[in-house]
Amino acid sequence: MTADSTVTEPIATTxxxxxxxxxxxxxxxxxxxxxxxxxxxxxxVDKRAVHPEEFRVEKIGGRQLEMxxxxxxxxxxxxxxxxxxxxxxxxxxxxxxxxxxxAYGLPYADLVAMARRQLPDPSSLIVDEVTAIDCSDDIQHLxxxxxxxxxxxxxxxxxxxxxALGYKLGIxxxxxxxxxxxxxxxxxxxxxxxxxxxxxxxCYGERTADGVDYLSLFPVRAxxxxxxxxxxxxxxxxxxxxxxDTEATLLRLLPGLRPFLGDFRVTDRVQxxxxxxxxxxxxxxxxxxxxxxxxxTNCPAAGTGxxxxxxxxxxxxxxxxxxxxxxxxxxxxxxxxxxxDPDKIAADQQSLKMARFRQALTSRNDIGWDxxxxxxxxxxxxxxxxxxxxxxxxxxxxSALRA
Length: 403
Prior knowledge:
The chain is α/β, with parallel strands linked by helices. It is 37% helix and 29% strand.
């Protein structure tokens, strides 16, 4: 290089969007697709073009399906997942009842991929990493690791429990219950290659000392998926035993499973997840809104995480964000409308309530909770028996009337 040579710095590219969504997991990918399909300019920023395999949400059912349908994802879900309609619920080796209703099983990565496929323009996904956010009452400025810049009127943080960006904005996470629950995920098959005798099965814990809430077995394309939910110290030796000798440890914790599973084996890696219950504080900032686990975490055993996430997506993307974009500014008076939305508040509160209920129902051994636990399963069992008897009873009534 000569003395009079000059170095020309590359001009950083600036991407302009109406809404920048940071984090391309389920919450971010669903939100991006809903907003983009409504005609908004969306930039979904995630550091991975394809979401990696990880142990997160693996089954969708109940009211969650109505939310997927309302948001326009039900066909995509049905095409990506395995459907099942009956769940055999057992405890202490006996059938408690049978749940009837449409549900789907699929890996979390497939669920995210399904949501991303709904983006009208695949280039809306920007494979990069947001390193800083400068927020204001008007335009938000995001710096990307690649050197590019992103400008948007609204930033949606869907970063899960990764709180670095939020921390830089002064948003902190308040832990309500540290190491609240432990979840395990793995796939099983019969050693003889035969199918299991059930479509799906839930086996509930038998002893409070074990801290087992339930084991959920349901079909995915790779086989019979198992999700085990526990309220127990994650440093307990049983956690290591579950990873190293899963079959024997599982039957020791849930001996009533044996007649339903027969001789089985684990066919893939055993994954586990320790979850804190937490909420954020100091989150009311101009131009920035948090959804999903970025705002509040959930207890996986309670089964409320996806429902709460879907409420966040529906209320923000179908109601609040379109109204905000229709007028100038993006100050805290607008952002606060989402956090004070009655449906969002109700979903958040219900999630925390169910988390505490599942833990108490599983682990509390005082006489009050022991009676409550017995009545809970007795009520379900009696209802199931009545339902089984009802067709015969109706037939007898019709016969008597005909006579």
